[in-house]
Amino acid sequence: MPERRPAPTSASAELSAGHPPTAGYTVTDYLLDRLAELGVDRVFGVPGDFTLGLLDHIEAHSVVSWVGTANELGAGYAADGYARLRGIGALCTTFGVGELSAVNAVAGSYAEHVGVLHLVGAPSQAAQAAGRALHHSLGDGDFRHFYRMSAEITVAQAVLTATNYAAEIDRVLLAIREQHLPGYLLLATDVGEVDAQPPAAPLPAHRDLTSPGALAGFAEAARVLLAGAVCVGVGGTVQAGAGAGAGVGVRRAGVGRVAVLADLLVHRLGAEAELHELLATAQPDGRPLAHATLLWGRRVVDESAPGYLGAYEGSASAPAVRHGIEDADALILAGVQFTDLTSGFFSQHFDDSRVIRLDPHRASVAGIEFGPVDLPDALGVLSGILRSLAANAANAANAANAANEVAAMAASAVAGAEVASTTVASGTPLSQAALWSEVAAALRPGDLVLADQGTSFYGMGAERLPHGVVFVGQPLWASIGYTLPALIGAALAAPERRPILLIGDGAAQLTAVELGTMMRLGLAPIVVIVNNDGYTVERAIHGPTARYNDIAPWNWTALPAALARDARDLFTTRASTVGELRAALEDARAADSALALVEAVVPRLDVPPLLAAIAAAAARANAPAPPAP
Question: How many other C-beta atoms can be found within 10 angstroms of the C-beta atom of residue 199?
Answer without folding.
Answer: 22
